[in-house]
TrEMBL record:
TM helices/strands, residue ranges: 6-23, 44-72, 92-112
Entry keywords, A to Z: Membrane, Transmembrane, Transmembrane helix
Species name: Bacillus mojavensis
Name of the protein: DUF4181 domain-containing protein
Pfam families reported in the protein's UniProt record: DUF4181
InterPro entries in the cross-refs: DUF4181
Length: 113
């Protein structure tokens, strides 16, 4: 991956942070600190499995693509679990935005690289 990838990645992360701030203001969502707290122990185990899979997949595939796929899969999982089991918190909106932006970045990278 080139410097261009990391620059676009940084722009996407900054844009995601700005969108999260706007959504927090508009919908009155209270984010519980920097550390994510899983909804259930099953979700925690799935995330640990995905992390282990990500670490081993870095041996065979480019790190940039695997990083994006990891973020997309983690955020999609968190979106679904929170939307299904804690819809009143509305924190699933954060993960929906992040998964969408990382998916857009992955499509951008696949088209232009």
């Amino acid at each position: 991956m080139s410097t261009h990838f990391w620059l676009v990645f940084l722009v996407i992360v900054s844009f995601s942070t700005a969108l999260q701030f706007l959504i927090k203001k508009k919908f009155g969502i209270h984010k519980s600190g920097w550390l994510y707290k899983p909804v259930s122990s099953t979700q925690r185990l799935i995330e640990i499995f995905l992390l282990i899979l990500f670490v081993f997949s870095m041996i065979f595939f480019p790190v940039g693509y695997m990083l994006l796929l990891f973020f997309i899969s983690i955020d999609s999982l968190r979106f679904f679990i929170e939307w299904r089991y804690r819809p009143e918190d509305k924190q699933y909106m954060y993960h929906l935005i992040e998964a969408g932006l990382f998916l857009a970045l992955l499509i951008y990278i696949c088209i232009f690289f």
